[in-house]
């Protein structure tokens, strides 16, 4: 059936014509107050002029209402003029999609009628522009019906305008306010943005909208505005507003632009693709990768590649005429960077085109490369050794490998160029040791040239490291490498060789921040160490406080490691993937309690929440015997994590209460863990190295004033003496119920000791003499 013959199309066409001439426009409630206040000002904005339907149009409308039912539902064809109008509409739409437009985010004060709480209501508009500067006046349009428009009217025309920066974060801000206004959208904005909700009007001379304020470096500036006029046009309303106040948020710089579904910087480079511009089915599929385990493996890697292929094949803009900008756009809109999984997007796109019969145009030299790199992400020591061995064989076969572009050389070695913390010097120093390369000599002339081979990139590496060494740590950590390249006299593009190696360069340029006094986990982490890293990171994020968690989760993942005494260049785990996973859990859950539950489920394969007495003793014994120095130095939470126990874990013990058979005691509270660790340290003394024995003796002496080697003539055994000094030294925390310290019963006789605050409060504690033998 033709479009003109569809009853629904005929109805909406008739309704549109009627609505054009029958609806009455209404100014904003604040228009009249504004006009009254400015009637004597020659610069005042004039009231809108309203137009009524002409007599001919009114007659046409009247005649149309007198048609019979048969006539109303009879199939009619669009007239030639109506067909031309439809074509014109589509042409204008297609043209305007390619015309760059500014983007702004409007927020307005609004209270949810159900919860009686403020919600971050707002909308992103691409029609905002200035009307006049005397007084400063802006205009924009909103499609009806609109909750934002209703809220603006309800607040007497007061609202706030935010101008996002030309960055990915700025584009994300716009995208979050392009999802409508509903509970899910509010929740997502609250989680991903730093919002401030004003409570009272501070300056009465300047009207305050009390609208939500978006804070952060991705807001270029913000305006407090007040609507003065409304102009209804078709299904939109044009609003004119005066600017009451302007706040400069960041240093001068361009704001973001929107064109054909993409957010761009003024230079034209895409920084983000709106989610609603992507195929919905493909987006849903790619989102499933967030269900991967905390540390994905080869199975997840190949699954991720297939999901990216599905995205490319379902998006014509990705496969029709791919370019470097296309690959950047694809990567920007993936939940994880493709390079983190060793996936080359250029080769993958070419593979998709070939499967679709479109050919696979690749740059010269890329035809023989693999989509999946053998070495990618965080490279372990064994991986680095294999890479070096391959480099030696290639260079021994033909030294011209050292003269080809550095990234091409890495591909020949099976290394993804975006591998983390891998530097040219990691290869060159071994080649020199094998007399396969000339001795390193800093030479400025070698750096200048069109081709950046490994020798030249190594020169840049040396100069970059020296540049970072001359700066304070925080400045070196934050400075963009493009800026650093200019500072050392290199082209900006050379920064791409080092973006994934910043943590490595910082450990070399500021070694005192990463020595043994500041870091206690380095190198390739064991499973025990990995659990400790997990424990420290999650506790540092402070997940029990939503406010603090939101602040901490935005920190650089590598910097998070340093702050929890872990070397940022550790191998055996990818902290960026881990933090990305935690972020996903937070953003994809409806409530914060749901997030905490989801996080607990994600940690379940790594930790145990309850343990029996015998199992606990065995875990403590193994932990102390394998790493006695860490048993001394680590905190209680790190000790528990190393033993595979969650920091909130409990131990099941016999109960003193006759009404209960067993009781669960927190291992983080009380002295159970300290008691068992100290017992095992005493037993270990004498069987370890000299360093370990000295550390154990010092720990027991300084912590409990206990000499692990008492004179043989002492009438009291070392076990009895230690039992007493521990009983008088160990601090007890408020317990559950009516006891500050849970009684731990082990086989053998028990000796009751009253001491300290427990004696004052009439509380007693039982210790097993067998615990120290």
UniProtKB/TrEMBL annotation:
<dbReference type="GO" id="GO:0010181">
    <property type="term" value="F:FMN binding"/>
</dbReference>
<feature type="compositionally biased region" description="Basic and acidic residues">
    <location>
        <begin position="751"/>
        <end position="773"/>
    </location>
</feature>
<keyword id="KW-0560">Oxidoreductase</keyword>
<dbReference type="GO" id="GO:0042602">
    <property type="term" value="F:riboflavin reductase (NADPH) activity"/>
</dbReference>
<feature type="domain" description="Flavin reductase like">
    <location>
        <begin position="96"/>
        <end position="265"/>
    </location>
</feature>
<protein>
    <recommendedName>
        <fullName>Flavin reductase like domain-containing protein</fullName>
    </recommendedName>
</protein>
<dbReference type="InterPro" id="IPR050268">
    <property type="entry name" value="NADH-dep_flavin_reductase"/>
</dbReference>
<dbReference type="InterPro" id="IPR012349">
    <property type="entry name" value="Split_barrel_FMN-bd"/>
</dbReference>
<dbReference type="InterPro" id="IPR002563">
    <property type="entry name" value="Flavin_Rdtase-like_dom"/>
</dbReference>
<dbReference type="Pfam" id="PF01613">
    <property type="entry name" value="Flavin_Reduct"/>
</dbReference>
<feature type="region of interest" description="Disordered">
    <location>
        <begin position="729"/>
        <end position="773"/>
    </location>
</feature>
